[in-house]
Amino acid sequence: MDGTTKVRRGLEVNMPATLELGRLGYCTDTHTLWIGNHTGGSGTPTRVLPVMVGATALTDGEVGLVPKATIADRLKVLRGDGTWVAGGGGSIDPSQPNTWTGLQTYNMGLGNPPIGVTGAYQAGATVTNLSANYLEGHDASYFAVSNHQHAFGDITSGLPLTWTPSAHSHAWSDLNSGVPTVFPPDSHTHAFGDITSGLPLTWAPSLHNHAWSDITSGVPLTFTPSAHVHAFGDITSGLPLTWAPSAHSHVASEYVTMVGASAIADGEKGAVPKPVIAERTLFLRGDGTWAAAGAMGDTLELTAAPADVHVSGITVPLTLGETLAFGVPVYVKSDGLVWKANATTSATVPAIGVTAEAKNVGQVCVILRKGTATNMAGWNWTVGSSAGMIYLDTTAGTLTQTAPSAANNVIQVIGFALSADTAFIDPSLVIVEHV
Asked: Is the pLDDT of residue 397 over 90?
């Protein structure tokens, strides 16, 4: 099986107009990832992590990531059109002329404005005698009245002679007429000490609580326990030696860093190891290290699948009784394990398929039962007619295009050649034994 995942790579200006559905594209200059998102065979690529799109004179921008700032951009600010520009917060330079005597115009492309915003950014500077009639190139009639407020003392005309009262309140001391001499009582409370008459001699008890120390009689010797909880530190006996895990979660800081796989041992799951500055353009390998990925043409190889051997078809996982390489014909022995098939006698047949990968004794190996297998470095088949037939060989674990012919040999067809390095594997379970 081909486990290679390929990603189109290049400059964003060279990004193709269409990508196949699900095909990925990586722009090396803008560091963005794209994916073909059309419901058909191909379509307009869409950024997976898009950079913001700046506004133009005719269209709004789009939400996205802040564009990359270079070293030269570190003191600049991001403008709404998506570019890094200088400026964005200077102060008035008092060394410039501080009086405008007529309509002033200012073109940003021609330098500093007439009142002088300078690189010194002098804090606290002011410009005097600035006439509102020339602000922004407009006279005073240009500015429409907006919602605002004035202090009452600023209003010098147009005040009404009488006022319609609105909802309001007065302090009691402000009332100098119309105050009643008696008041009907409303709902209120008094402190017990304020009551001087009418107290009952006995009281019917109401629902209330007492502190435990207030109870001087009638305390039971034993108590029926009610639903309650204890702090873990309060439990002094009866603790189990082991605990069954319950549903819970961990914060990221509780995870240990992953353990990478070695040539003889599998790795362990864990947090991604911390990349340092020098590793920012590298990729995490299965051995837990950051390394550069190999580039081929306009694609970026993200896996290390061998390019010279692969299979495609119906497979089954089986445990090996011995260490086997790729493309070895195998049979199932009486111990239930997979071993090299051999056409010398019927005791080591039938072959049920060929190995689709190289694995060690005791490991589970993928066996190709029916499909195509390619071994560019190890096979050189003859193609066509009966000459293209492939048989189980009398050398254990090998294939041949010459049918075995010695006494007691077994003839089993394993498949036929499609090309010099590719075979169609479909082992026949009908075998012929020489006598």
From this structure: yes
